[in-house]
Amino acid sequence: MVDALQVFTTVDDRDVAERIANALISRRLAACVQIMGPVTSVYRWQGKVETSPEWLCIIKTQQSRYPTVEAAIRELHTYQVPEIVAVPIVAGAAGYLAWLRQETSED
Questions:
Q1: In CATH, what number does 4-103 get?
Q2: What is the pTM of this model?
Q3: Sequence ranges of the domains in the chain
Q4: 3-state DSSP of the chain
Q5: pLDDT per position as a tens digit, 46-76
C-alpha cells in the first residue's frame, strides 16, 4: 500500500499560497507544493453564487502526516471554511515515492 497523498487547498492570494507552501516544506510536512493560478472558482457561499480568482495548492505528503498538514493549513489560511481535501496516490514511480517519504520523514 502506498502511504502518499495529494492534498488540495485554494486561497485568494498568491502570497498566502506561498506562505502555506513554504511553511509545509520547511516543517517537512510536504515534499512538494505546486501553486497554480490564478484559476476561476464558481461556488455558492451564504446563499449567493460567487466567482473569484484563486490559487490552487497541490501538496504532496504522506497519509500519516495529514492531520499536521491540515492543522498547518488552517493556521495560515484566511478563509472561514477553507477547502482542504486529500486524495490517495494509489500508485507511482518507485523513486518518486521514495523521495516523497524521505522529504516528509519526521526524523
A1: 3.30.70.120
A2: 0.93
A3: 4-103
A4: CCCEEEEEEEECCHHHHHHHHHHHHHCCCCCEEEEEEEEEEEEEECCEEEEEEEEEEEEEEEHHHHHHHHHHHHHHCCCCCCCCEEEECCCCCHHHHHHHHHHCCCC
A5: 999 999 999 999 999 999 999 999 999 999 9
